[in-house]
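Sorry to interrupt, but I need a hand with the structure work. I would like you to pick a protein and set down its sequence and fold. Please put the record directly below this note.
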Amino acid sequence: MRLLTTTIATLTTAIAALFWLAANADAETLVGVAAPLSGPSAILGKQVEAGAGLAAEANGIAFKAVDDACTAEGGAAAAREFVDAKANVVVGFLCTEAIEAALPILKDANIPVITVGVRTESLTDRRAKTGWPVYRLGPRGDDERNAVAAKLTQLWRDDLFAIVDDGTIYGREMAETFRAAAEQAALKPAFVDTFRPQLDNQIGLVGRLKKAGATKVFAGGDGDDIAIMGRDAAQLDAGITFAGGENLRTPQGDVPYTVGTLMIAPPEWSEVADPNVVQAFAAKNIVPDGYTLPAYAAVEVAKAALAGAESSGQPLADALTGHDFTTAIGTVRFDGKGDLSQNPFRVFRFDGTHFVPLEDK
């Protein structure tokens, strides 16, 4: 609790300075920042506010941060504030309820939204019906399982692989998407099963996997279970490499991951971001984790799109679609629905200390 309080206090101090600087920025351009600045998600909201504020300072534009409270009521109220303030574009939003309540209001005012945290697939899938001017600078809800399916089908094409899951909706969807993709690629897993999660050992499961001849196994489940599988496979000299999804990024439990364990997840943005931007965060005593760098990038996209719209005379929504934007976290491009044109999930390998990109192993 003390660490959380200290983190919020540090962000609050840094943000206060950014607000002062924003008051001296170009008044003709205003970026709205919507985030949960109170309640249980406040620490995440402060990350959005800090990242967007630092980008606004660096790019000489003004920003207005509003607490959306992660609720429908808060989202609608925030949207009305942005309309009254004549914001050019809004970035942020971490909660589905808030953004879905805000979008009809912002749509009527022709104010596009760049969300950095809402993964709900229908947000962009319904674009033709709703007409919502929303752009997603982050993964969709189905990006993880689609990446698992595409990348492991290619990576394990010449291996005997197995697919297991823990019986949860998350685990089953991941496993089934991979299985279906493998089938389309004319590949058949050597073993498919559901395992019982949160056991002290998975000796029985590993024994069945070894008997089936599997040398690669995707497990749809928690990181702790996958760590235990890896440990037990090593004890049985099974020669099995395990892979999992983004859940492996959570702090390790009592059992460490086995060297070689694969994780399919987005990058740690601080590890791939522009070093100069990371240094700018450090100079403000802001830790560049969580949503700080995506929020920074969202403001960069907003500024570039506004400049593009002004020079071309096209609507801002058109300037945001189908164009490459150079940002602190790499090139960003939105497709016709407003999703990222490239799935951000990558394959990482555990090297005994942390996960590194597979190509860097």
About this structure: The mean pLDDT is 92.
